[in-house]
Design goal:
This protein has about 170 residues and is of the alpha+beta class. The protein has 4 helices and 6 strands, in the order βαβββαββαα.
């Protein structure tokens, strides 16, 4: 059976210079469409997660496990594909980032579902707590430093090929 825990409306304002994106809720039908489009099993339940400055995230439980639906507001589709490419490249070089799932459809690999004007990505769920800079530990700072060191190992020609339009927010 499907259980909807929250039906939450995104309230983020668009950033200047970015195309206005349709805001709204993810309905039961929307989330079912997400499950079908990404091929992640049958919807069990979903609820909004906290945090997210430029998007709204939902915890999705399906017959195949836990996932995160990312409803994106601050970037357009080409910028999100650059983010996917940057995240994939970071993963290749050992930076611990979550997997971004591709849509299950023929043709070139795509990672952004456009649903009634909403830009949606599906991510691997990683259990943990959303932290703040307050109370950060020396071990956490060491982990951040290690991740940055991995990023510096990426050859410059690979970074140039990403054509980053600006900072890769959410990487």
């Amino acid at each position: 059976t499907m259980e909807q825990e929250d039906d939450v409306q995104g309230q983020s304002a668009p950033q200047p210079g970015l195309k206005k994106i349709v805001y709204g809720t993810l309905s039961h039908e929307d989330v079912q469409t997400v499950c079908e489009a990404f091929g992640v099993g049958e919807l069990v339940k979903f609820s909004q997660l906290g945090g997210g400055l430029a998007n709204v995230n939902y915890l999705l439980t399906t017959s195949q496990g836990l996932f995160v639906i990312k409803l994106c507001f601050a970037k357009n589709q080409p910028e999100l594909e650059v983010q996917v490419n940057a995240t994939t490249l970071a993963h290749e070089f050992g930076v611990p980032v979550c997997k971004i799932f591709a849509l299950k459809r023929p043709g070139p690999e795509e990672h952004v579902l456009v649903l009634d004007g909403k830009l949606i990505m599906l991510l691997e769920f990683i259990a943990g707590n959303v932290g703040t800079i307050d109370g950060i530990t020396a071990a956490q700072l060491t982990n951040v430093g290690s991740s940055l060191a991995f990023l510096h190992k990426i050859p410059e020609d690979r970074l140039v090929s990403l054509s980053l339009p600006g900072p890769p927010m959410g990487l």
